[in-house]
Amino acid sequence: MKILVVNAGSSSLKYQLIDMQNEKVLAKGGCERIGIEGSFLKAKGNGQEKVYEKAMPNHKVAIELVLHALADEGIGVIKSMDEIGAVGHRVVASGEFFKKTTLVTPEVLKTLEETFELAPLHNPAAATGVKACMEVMPNTPMTLVFDTSFHATMPEKAFLYGIDYEDYKKYGVRKYGAHGTSHKFVSAEAAKYLGKKPEQLKIVTCHLGNGSSITAVDGGKCVDTSMGFTPLAGVLMGTRSGDIDASAVEFLARKKGLSHADMITYLNKQCGVAGISGVSSDFRDLEAGYERGDKRCALALEMFSYQTKRFVGAYAAAMGGLDCIVFTAGIGENTPIVREEVCSGLEFLGVQFDSEANKKKNDGSIREISAKGSKVKVLIIPTNEELVIARETAELL
Ligand code: AMP
User: Fold this and answer.
1) Is 9 a pocket residue for ligand 1 (Cβ < 6 Å)?
2) What is the mean pLDDT of residues 186-204?
3) Mean pLDDT of the chain
4) In angstroms, how far is CA 33 from the centroid of its own chain?
5) Across residues 2-30, what is the average pLDDT?
6) Binding site membership of 210 for ligand 1 (Cβ less than 6 Å)
7) Cα of 216 from ligand 1 centre, angstroms
8) pTM of the entire predicted model
9) What are the start-end ranges of the E strands in the chain?
C-alpha cells in the first residue's frame, strides 16, 4: 500500500508518499513560506527534483499543488489518485477528544474542530489539509495521527499545572505537549546511532522549527516536555510568545484593549522572534539581519537559544543526568548559530562541543557535533515524523 503523509504546519506543508511494503519514500517535498511572500514547493520523485514557484496564500492551494506534483510528468510517481491507499494527517493537539490514531469520518472532522482552540495555528491547517484531500480523493481512507500520544507517559508531577486539582479533572487543563512523533523518532534514532538500547539513555530532544519544543526522554519514554496545554508554551517561537506570566497576559490585554480571544491571537501570531526582531519569524531572515548588524535580530536569536538551553539544563536535572542532546527540525537541522549558543557553557554537564563539525552544511544525514570523547553526545538528526505517521496509519488500517 502507498500512504501519503501530510504534515501541515503553520507556514509549511511537508509530504511523503511511502510504499509500506519496504517503507521506501517514493516522493517527497515541502511547501515553504505558506502565507508569506515567496512561497514555493520543492518536490522530489523519480530521482528528480522540481521547484514550483507559486503563491500559496493557504494550505488548500498547497495541497492541490502537492497532488499535482505527485502525478506530474517527469517527477510524478503515480498515474492516478487511486494508487494512494490512505492519507495520514499529522495533528498537533488532541486534548481529551482523541487518545490515539483515528480514522477520519465526517463526525471525527466535526470533533476535530473542537480542538482548534488548543492549537489555533496548526489544527485548523490540518483540518484544511484533510478536507482538501477528501475533495480530491473522496474514497481514500484518512487518519489523524496526534503529536500528543508520545507524551502520555509523563508523570502527574510533570503534566499538572498548579491549579485546583478538581479544575484539572473537570476541564482537562494540563500539559499535553506536542511534536510527539518527532521526539519519538529522533530519540529512537539517537539510541540506534549510539549503539545503545533506549532504556540505557537520558536524552534531551530539541525539536526547533517554526514551532519548537524540548523533551526529556528517559529510558525511551517522555518524562517532561516544554509545550503545554497548547503549543503556545515553552520557548518563544516564530510568532508565538512561549511561556509568559498569566498576570502579564491580563495586564497587556487591558492596556491594549484586547478581548481574551484577540489576546490569544496576539500571543500566537504577533510575538515570538517576529515580535522581538520586528523583522521576521523565519530564522534565515534573522541570521541575515544578525550578519548585517541588526541588534534586535541578534537579540531574538540570543533569547531563543538561551531559553532552549534553560530547558536542556532543567531536563538534565529532572532526569538526574544527561547522555545525549538531539537537535532536529528546520532550525535544529539548519541553524548552526543556535546549536552553538545552546551548547555553550554546558561543559559542566559534560558537553564538549565541536564548532567546526557544527558549521558543516546539512546533508540530510545524522551528524555528531560533540567533540571526540565528550561525555554528552550532541547529534543532529533529521526528523521523520512522516514515517511514524505512515506506520501508525498502516497499523490502523
Ligand atoms: P519547520 O517548522 O521545522 O519546518 O522549521 C521551519 C523554520 O526553520 C523556518 O521558519 C526557518 O526559520 C528555519 N530554517 C532555517 N534554515 C532553514 C532551511 N535551510 N530550511 C528550512 N528551514 C530553515
Assistant:
1) yes
2) 98
3) 94
4) 15
5) 92
6) yes
7) 23
8) 0.85
9) 2-8, 13-19, 24-32, 40-45, 48-53, 84-91, 102-103, 142-146, 202-208, 212-218, 221-225, 324-328, 367-368, 377-380
Q: Given the C-alpha cell 501570531, which residue does it identify?
A: 269
Please report which helix (H) or strand (E) contains residue 58, including its range: none
The Å distance, Cα 331 to ligand 1 centre, comes to 5
Fold of 180-380: Nucleotidyltransferase; domain 5 (3.30.420)
| 237, pLDDT greater than 80 | yes
Protein residue with its CA nearest to atom 9 in ligand 1: 282
CA distance 277 to 301: 9
Q: Quick one: which of 91, 348, 393 has its CA closest to 231?
A: 91
Give ∠ CA 295-298-299 in degrees, rounded to 5.
85
Rounded to whole angstroms, the Cα distance separating 107 from 85 reads: 21
Query: Between the CA atoms of 242, 243, 244 and 250, what dihedral angle is there, to the nearest 10 degrees?
Result: 80
Looking at residue 269, its amino acid is: K
Active-site residues: which are they? 147
- Which mutation among 240, 283, 305 tests ligand 1's pocket best, with the greatest number of atoms within 8 A of CB? 283
Nearest to 174 by CA among 268, 267, 93: 93
- Ligand 1 contact, 180 CB (< 6 A): no
Domain 2-149 shares a fold with domain 180-380: yes
CA distances from 144 to 43, 87, 148 (A): 23, 9, 12
Residue 238, ligand 1, Cβ within 6 A: yes
Domain spans, the chain: 2-149, 180-380
Any idea which residue has 515567496 for its cell?
A: 38
Please give the number of the atom of ligand 1 that sits closest to the Cα of 30. Answer: 4
Q: Name beta bridge partners: 245.
A: none
**CATH class (in words) of the domain with range 2-149:** alpha beta
pLDDT of residue 64: 85
- Alpha-carbon distance of 315 to 191, in angstroms, equals 18
Name the residue of 37, 237, 282 whose CB sits within 8 Å of the most ligand 1 atoms, as the mutation to test its pocket. Answer: 282
129 Cβ below 6 A of ligand 1? no
